[in-house]
Amino acid sequence: MKKLLLGLGNYINILSKLTFLFIFLFVVYIFLEKKMITTSDILIVFSIILIQYALPPFISWIVNMKIKK
């Protein structure tokens, strides 16, 4: 029963992230259609998001590799 609940929670978590992603992309599409934002604005936002989420695991991976040596 516990595994079922954990699996269900994981499924709901992934589903909520996908829903947020689709809503975000839809809003970006509407803004692009109305010429309220440009593609350079989108690239800046995505680079900030990428740095925010991808850099800490990468740094911790490098630190772990240095510690293991």
Would you give an account of this structure?
This protein is an all-alpha fold and 69 residues long. It has 2 domains: 1-37; 38-69. It has helices at 2-33, 39-68. The longest helix has 32 residues, at 2-33. The model has no long low-confidence stretch (mean pLDDT 81).
Helix content: over 70%
How many strands, what sense, and barrel or not for the largest sheet?
none
SSE pattern:
HH
The 3D shape can be described as: flat
Using DSSP, what is the number of strands?
0
Head-to-tail CA distance between termini: 42 Å
Q: What is the mean predicted local confidence, pLDDT?
A: 81
Number of domains: 2
> Which residues form runs of ≥5 with pLDDT under 50?
none
Number of continuous helical runs: 2
Rounded to an integer in angstroms, the radius of gyration calculated over CA atoms is 18 Å
Brief summary:
The protein has helices at 2-33, 39-68.
Secondary-structure blueprint of this entry?
Elements: H1 2-33, H2 39-68
Task: Please give a handful of descriptors for the protein shown.
flat, 90% helix, 2 domains, 69 residues, mainly alpha, 2 helices
